[in-house]
């Protein structure tokens, strides 16, 4: 309990510092607001839908986090602080479990303190598991708890529950469940022999099979597809293309986080030594040899899964931050295996030096350059702008138009009309349209044929003063045009849509307006100014 209280205190302090340097922006990035949209609709009784009365769709990556979000909306009108508390508590529990595992005793050791230095040397980790209000904290906590549990002696039965939770938290849980079952097999067989394995792991296998089978059956019945809609919208069918993006993601992560080489070298050593021992016929290793191999495999899989899926578009390496606390663990396995004879006084100097190196080594984002506020601060402002745009549209229109957008979280949370997600995450027809998914990562599913079938009334609405909107519209629409594969300059689009300012006495919106809808607005007396685009 003392360890948990210490971690909660350290994490809370670190989150507060990050919050201050972000300029105290409202909690939650735009993708978190996609969870909010679904959670609010579930809480209100509309079902798992992006738009009340609309199609059933799984436009989020974590069923469990969506359900937690729905609980938050059931308990609170604004659940942001509730979700932040859940994030901080869950990550603190996971860190405490690993801390205790590293110490290996009730006594706090230098190894445990070195682990804490590693964890809190990364503001990117602190940021991603807290203020964005995504599923990252829950996922990271489950990975840590599963690691500590599977390596405990004996393997705890709580691994059964953790395997089920992993599958329910993220799609990667399907692989991780098998990984932890395999590690449990290694640990049990090395301690008690292969004959003792089946009685020990059959509950884990049952939990894996029933949870995964039940989830797939539910998806097929409720949504009509076996995987989340985000998979179809984000992942390219070109495996080599995904691997190319993923390798670039991994290399850039290592280049900007050079301290991870400490764990990487130890990881490679663990795998290499295990293969050598196995080749020489040493089929039964001692306890720490198996643990060293397991920790090395866990780190390797943590690094390789994003390579297979093609990485991520968010800054600060979201997918690797969830595994950040695990990247230091292979070195502890190596030390236990080789057991170097280091004088007692030298251990303190060595541990202190390594801890300082973790904080001082050059990296893209650290505590003293505060670049994390610039790298991810824009994501919070996108969500805030989306909410303001949705609120403005509600006030401007009585007969709410359909709105086509690229960033689909904040605006859908506030807007009472129908939002069409042109990136496909919350749009079945767009997500399942044919295409290679080449282009900007996670934003490459746009299909012009689907767009003209769905034909939203407004496309890419912007808010602001009329002068600012007109003067800056070319810059504001440059990136969306790339994401939409040149749609805004397409002749068919120009014949169908007109860029215009729509105003009343208090509000102004700039958007590409479908021409028939534009004529209706003019007949209703709206102040409409056409913009030459």
Question: How is this fold's topology laid out?
Answer:
Elements: H1 2-21, H2 30-43, H3 63-75, H4 80-103, H5 110-120, H6 123-128, H7 136-150, H8 158-169, H9 173-192, H10 197-222, H11 229-234, H12 239-256, H13 260-279, H14 287-309, H15 318-321, H16 329-338, H17 344-360, H18 372-396, E1 403-405, H19 410-414, E2 419-421, H20 428-431, H21 448-454, E3 458-463, H22 466-483, H23 491-496, E4 497-503, E5 508-514, H24 515-523, E6 527-530
Parallel strand pairs: 1-2, 1-3
Antiparallel strand pairs: 3-5, 4-5, 4-6
Helix pairs in contact: 1-4, 2-3, 4-5, 4-7, 5-17, 7-8, 7-9, 8-9, 8-10, 9-10, 9-14, 12-14, 13-14, 13-16, 14-16
Summarize this entry quickly.
The longest helix is centred in the middle third of the chain and has 26 residues, at 197-222. The chain has helices spanning 2-21, 30-43, 63-75, 80-103, 110-120, 123-128, 136-150, 158-169, 173-192, 197-222, 229-234, 239-256, 260-279, 287-309, 318-321, 329-338, 344-360, 372-396, 410-414, 428-431, 448-454, 466-483, 491-496, 515-523, and strands at 403-405, 419-421, 458-463, 497-503, 508-514, 527-530. Among the domains are: 151-234; 239-339, no CATH class; 374-530, no CATH class.
